[in-house]
């Protein structure tokens, strides 16, 4: 299977968007996607609690719109290719079976899902990138012609240029699709319902708090750490798949600690994380981290194992440093429930704050991502936000010279 997946990649280490095995480039609503193989998982000390699991093929895709619609689109645009890939899996997908039904039956909903900027589509990203490129070239030409002293004149010339390019069909700024009323209503119910539910349960949490605190401290003192340096061969394997683009994929797979307290804790904190990512951190930030495009946490094997996958700008070292320095407490809330995690204190202290231990722990569980696709290579999360601000300056025009200069400065970046 490894050899089969490698055939999707080009000589430069990046996936060929129109490879014959899975043509990612056909899907106009697909932001990022990956194929990876989860290694065989050994049974725990008690196989009834943590059974063994064979190697598994995973496909992850972040797309615009509902997942069911994307699955149907995959079957239409790449049905034969997917049948061939999934024919290597057990249970085998037969020629007479419905590909859509088979994929839906094997789909696992994430326990938590983070999107850098909810509502920003692939089409919008590409159109705004083209707008920035066109304006950047035009601005350099205008500065040579009329100088920098009159920002209003520069802006007016640029806006006139945009109108001409749009009339000629060389630039497109498609208005965003209206939010479906049903989705908006469900989202509002979720936004209000979760805090109300937590408020209703607060007396129960208060009643149980002595037990929860004592149990937590006992486990924190007795859970073993597994923070030895990863083998050099493993680190080299990870490094060999890094930095082909300004954005990198990260995949990690590990076991949840066996105690019921830990399994309940990880589900609870992932539930809160999913809520925060949906309603609070949905405009370019995950707490103070701005370099992540998409991330998801997927519980497997009856909540006994966790797959984490993200797409981030920069190197793995800078990615880990970003989290350690800015949101170590958040890492502890979720990942301290994984076996071998550096010991925490009162759940949010220590843990990831022990930098070297945390990095060894994470790298030991990191997996090479065999195939990774990004619809807009070369663009960071910062680039996407800048391009959106440039478009906003075209459609909602600034009034004073300071705002105009700031808009022009964005174009020059």
TrEMBL record:
Span of domain PH = 279-413
Q: What residue ranges are annotated as transmembrane?
A: 192-214
Whether Transmembrane helix counts among this entry's keywords is yes
Q: Which InterPro entries does the entry mention? A: PH_domain
For this UniProt record, give its keywords in alphabetical order, as a comma-separated list. Membrane, Transmembrane, Transmembrane helix
What is the designated name of this protein? Answer: PH domain-containing protein
The record lists the organism as Sedimenticola thiotaurini
């Amino acid at each position: 299977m490894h050899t089969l997946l490698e055939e999707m990649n080009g000589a430069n280490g990046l996936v060929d968007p129109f490879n014959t095995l899975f043509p990612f480039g056909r899907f106009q609503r697909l932001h990022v996607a990956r194929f990876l193989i989860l290694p065989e998982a050994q049974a725990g000390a008690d196989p009834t609690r943590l059974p063994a699991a064979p190697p598994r093929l995973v496909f992850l895709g972040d797309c615009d719109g509902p997942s069911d619609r994307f699955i149907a689109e995959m079957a239409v645009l790449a049905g034969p290719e997917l049948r061939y890939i999934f024919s290597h899996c057990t249970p085998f997908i037969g020629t007479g079976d419905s590909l859509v039904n088979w994929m839906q039956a094997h789909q696992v909903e994430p326990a938590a899902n983070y999107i850098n900027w909810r509502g920003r589509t692939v089409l919008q990203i590409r159109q705004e990138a083209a707008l920035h490129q066109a304006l950047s070239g035009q601005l350099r030409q205008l500065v040579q012609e009329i100088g920098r002293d009159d920002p209003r004149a520069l802006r007016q010339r640029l806006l006139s240029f945009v109108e001409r390019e749009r009339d000629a069909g060389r630039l497109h700024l498609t208005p965003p699709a209206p939010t479906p009323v049903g989705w908006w209503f469900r989202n509002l119910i979720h936004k209000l319902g979760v805090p109300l539910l937590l408020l209703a349960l607060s007396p129960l949490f208060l009643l149980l708090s002595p037990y929860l605190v004592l149990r937590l401290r006992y486990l924190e003192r007795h859970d073993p750490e597994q923070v030895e340096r990863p083998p050099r061969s493993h680190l080299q394997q990870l490094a060999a798949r890094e930095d082909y683009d300004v954005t990198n994929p990260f995949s990690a797979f590990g076991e949840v600690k066996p105690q019921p307290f830990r399994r309940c804790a990880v589900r609870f904190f992932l539930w809160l994380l999913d809520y925060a990512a949906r309603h609070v951190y949905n405009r370019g930030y995950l707490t103070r981290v701005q370099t992540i495009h998409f991330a998801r946490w997927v519980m497997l094997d009856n909540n006994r194992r966790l797959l984490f996958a993200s797409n981030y700008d920069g190197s793995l070292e800078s990615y880990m440093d970003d989290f350690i320095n800015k949101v170590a407490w958040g890492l502890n809330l979720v990942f301290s429930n994984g076996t071998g995690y550096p010991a925490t204190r009162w759940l949010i202290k220590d843990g990831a704050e022990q930098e070297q231990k945390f990095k060894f722990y994470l790298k030991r569980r990191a997996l090479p991502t065999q195939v990774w696709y990004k619809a807009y290579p070369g663009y960071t999360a910062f680039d996407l936000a800048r391009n959106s601000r440039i478009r906003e300056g075209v459609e909602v025009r600034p009034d004073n010279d300071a705002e105009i200069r700031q808009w022009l400065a964005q174009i020059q970046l």
